[in-house]
Amino acid sequence: MKPRALSLKAAPPKLSTGQGWRGGWRDGVAYGALGLPLAFVALPLYVVLPAHYAQQFGVPLAWLGALLLAVRVLDAAVDPWIGGLCDRVFTQAPQWLLPLAGAAALLLALAFQALFFPPVTHLPSLLAWCAAALSLTYLAYSLLAILHQAWGARLGGTAAQRAGIVAWREAFALAGVVLASVLALGVGAAAPATAPSLGLVLGLAALHRAPRAAPRRAAPGGELPMRAALRNPSFRRLLAVFVVNGLASAMPATLVLFFARDRLQAAAWEPLFLAGYFLAAALAMPLWLRAVRRWGLSRCWLAGMALAVLAFAWAALLGPGDAGAFLAVCVASGMSLGADLSLPGALLAGVIRRAGHGGRAEGSYFGWWNAAAKLNLALAAGIALPLLGLFGYAPGSRDAAALDALMWAYCLLPCGLKLAAAALLVVLWLRSPEGANE
What we know:
Layout lengths: L5 E2 L17 H8 L2 H22 L4 H32 L4 H20 L6 H31 L5 H28 L9 H13 L14 E2 L8 H31 L6 H26 L1 H19 L7 H32 L7 H29 L9 H31 L2 H4 L2
Antiparallel strand pairs: 1-2
Helix pairs in contact: 1-6, 1-7, 2-5, 2-6, 2-7, 2-8, 3-5, 3-12, 4-5, 4-7, 5-12, 6-9, 6-11, 8-11, 8-12, 8-13, 9-10, 9-11, 10-11, 10-13
């Protein structure tokens, strides 16, 4: 069903009396708390799931990569429509926001558990079950995530305030990722499957008390279709940078457990690697926010990309026995992740406001934005895993050539993509008037 178009002539939203973003910890917790249970889903889906199905059920990497690519592409294609639906609810039926989120949370909890506890083991049936459960999980997750992102973007504010709103959401998400990684790698890969339910209930209860922009109905006249975001040249430029940078981050996220277990032979360190990575990202966020006040969003994002290149270039030199050095790599790349999580979303909120689409089309923008992010993850799994299989790598491999292929895919290819993203940020964004001022 195509979302109803929204009016170009609608007035921008004003914050409700007593509900506006004040920037204190109460507002931050109320808005950001939902990010924690969503992270319990995100980390197992994008990091743990490939290794879990390959090692526990013996699914060949080529088949697994093809399945993940197909389901993630389908999931990405649905996101813009979900964004349009969220815009309609925000503007026409805001009283249904939380009931809609509650229904999505229930579906998410059920489908996510089914994904990690399949009742079948025969390979064709297992692949079919995985595809169905994964599709439902993605659908529910996307609805919750886009609604949450659009909610925050509608609050507006200065560059520093927008970055702060995003940082609260992502800080809770990182806390959830750390908890999920400890559970998954310390207790078992399927352990987080039973954990998100209570967190989703608490997150939605907190969101009920969160600051929000007052709803504005669309005025009669011109329409704002779902594809209006793609007609915005500023959005297209920012999206190009985001896509290349996201692919550079998605590839190592897909391969990190394979790299730690086989290249470094440090499986026992995995919880510490992931905890160090995500804790560094969370702790770096306040530093990035302080830097934004001095140097702006765009230049700080560029600095984060440079830090990631240095970290992954160093990782290419590591091998068995270098677990301590790789932990330092995880901390450095985690600090770069803090910039990736808090700064692009704040830039996007500014793009929406400057286009005059604030309060009317945040869901559509974030729908396209999330679709691009998921296509990155799809390409990372759909390209990297089959290629590694083609070069002879399989989980548990000790062949030197296969491990060199793993090193190229985990370390050096992401470095090249990060450098390309940095070049695009300079050429397409920093040299534009809006990029130079943010």
